[in-house]
Amino acid sequence: MKEAVDNTQYDDNEAGHKQAGRKVQIVNAGSSQFGIFAEEISAIVNWQEPAPLPHAPASVLGVVSIEGRMLTVLDLATIILGEGGLVNATRNPATQLVALRGDEQLALALDSVGEILAFPENVSKSDTVTAAVLGVLQHEGAEISILNVPGLFPTAIQGRQRRQRQF
Questions:
Q1: Quick one: which H or E segment has residue 99?
Q2: Cα-based angle 72, 77, 82 (whole degrees, multiple of 5)
Q3: Is residue 99 within 8 Å of residue 109, measured between CB atoms?
Q4: Helix, strand, coil proportions of the chain in percent (round to 5)?
Q5: Which of 39, 22, 43 is nearest to 108 (CA)?
Q6: Which of 104, 88, 91 has its CA nearest to residue 155?
Q7: Residue 92: other Cβ atoms inside 10 A
Q8: With pLDDT > 70 as the criterion, what percentage of the chain qualifies?
């Protein structure tokens, strides 16, 4: 079952989106909360078991087809927390996938999807800012890491050579 994400209010041709007025979809992976800008989401669907990819890093779960697109599924908790941080046997299995817009053709494995928030202007840069995290939002006493979607794939395959098409 898909949850509709209203992306009609965003004009992709407008240079440099203003941060104010953007919407952030809250998602949960592992014991952490993350925010994804709504215009970066193509679809939110129920879990599908990905077809595994040989020799892929632990953060790459495989590939799935969502809305006719083949997407590489990344384990968001593994990317952000690291492979060593996931030895927790009590972790819930992923229940949903978020298909992302963009050239990398990615989907994220998530435990659950939360509310959509208006993006505030007071997002802080903290020690947890990485290539995959833009900043941290404080909301109702919780820290929500705002994801940098273009930085997810490079972070997921860090230290591995990426296959390039050769002409």
A1: strand 96-100
A2: 100
A3: no
A4: 15, 40, 50
A5: 43
A6: 104
A7: 11
A8: 70
Could you identify the residue written with the tokens 């919780």?
142
pLDDT in tens, 30-44: 888 999 999 999 999
Closest CA to 36 of 16, 2, 7: 7
> Average pLDDT, stretch 73-98?
73
Tell me which amino acid residue 123 is: V
Q: How much is the CA Rg of the chain, to the nearest whole Å?
A: 16
Q: For the whole model, what pTM was predicted?
A: 0.75
Label residue 2 by pLDDT band (50, 70, 90). Answer: very low
- Residue 160 is predicted with a pLDDT of 54
Q: In this structure, what is the dihedral angle of CA atoms 75, 134, 98, 71, given to the nearest 10 degrees?
A: -70
pLDDT of residue 92: 66
Per the structure block, which two tokens stand in for 87? 């030895």
Cα separation, 27 vs 156, whole angstroms: 18
Neighbours of 142 (CB within 10 A): 10
Strands 69-75 and 106-110: what pairing? parallel
Q: What is the pLDDT of residue 8?
A: 38
Question: 28, 111 in Cβ contact below 8 A?
Answer: yes
- Residue whose pair of structure tokens reads 């990317």 in the numeric block: 79
- Where do the domains of the chain lie, and which CATH numbers do they carry? 23-156 (2.40.50.180)
